[in-house]
Amino acid sequence: MSSSNPPRDSAAPPSNFLRQIIDDDMRTGKWGGRVATRFPPEPNGYLHIGHAKSICLNFGLARDYNGVCHLRFDDTNPVKEDQEYVDSILDAVRWLGFRWGTDREGDGDEHLYYASDYFDRLYEFGEHLIRKAGPTSIRSRPTRRASTAAASPNRGASRRTASALSRRTWTCSGG
Predict the structure, then answer these.
(1) In this structure, are strands 68-73 and 36-39 parallel, antiparallel, or unpaired?
(2) Which of 55, 62, 109, 137 is buried most deeply by CB count within 10 Å?
(3) Contacts of 128 (CB under 8 A, 6+ apart)
């Protein structure tokens, strides 16, 4: 059985849009030549293949550019989080061959963070932004309902699905 993919030149470095951006930044001296990435898992379950991809991407870029990857647990929901999941995530990062620390074993805590450690500071940032914005810029906006789903060009979408999509919060994280 023959493959339709041509053989890869093993000497060619991997390339993608992230590496191109980093290469451009390095060439122009942006960020002082430093590369810092992060992997921000939520410790409320076990990791899946998407998390593994993010670990390899973020830790791999940091390694390849002599940078650092910050392992920052997004521990913002203490009811669902457990130390078992934190330990499992740390084990998975090690198992994939990456380290977050600079000590001999590579698992010191100088690049290990927990978002909950910064709640007070984040709260202060929020207060500062509200004070800076002033009372006239804070307005309540009604949530747009997806009640016109039947009139939309996508007539196959049900009202229930459209309503659920209108309430969904999209985030970009490590997993």
Answers:
(1) parallel
(2) 55
(3) none
Which DSSP category does 13 fall into?
Answer: P
End-to-end CA distance of the chain: 36
The strand pairing partners of 71, in sequence order, are 39, 112
13 vs 36, residue with greater confidence:
36
Q: How many Cα atoms are found within 13 Å in the side-chain-facing hemisphere of 160? A: 0
| Angle formed at CA 17 by CA 11 and CA 20, multiple of 5 degrees | 65
Instruction: Confirm whether pTM is higher than 0.90.
Output: no
Please state, in angstroms and rounded to a whole number, the distance separating the CA atoms of residues 162 and 54.
29
For the segment 22-37, what is each residue's pLDDT rounded down to a tens digit? 999 999 999 999 999 9
79-112 confidence digits (pLDDT tens): 788 999 999 999 999 999 998 876 556 566 778 9
**Which amino acid is present at 126?**
G
- Cα–Cα distances in angstroms (integers) from residue 119 to residues 75, 116, 122, 172, in the given order: 10, 5, 5, 20
Element containing residue 165 per DSSP (H, E) = helix 159-167
Residue 61 token pair: 């870029």
Q: In whole angstroms, how large is the CA radius of gyration of the chain? A: 22
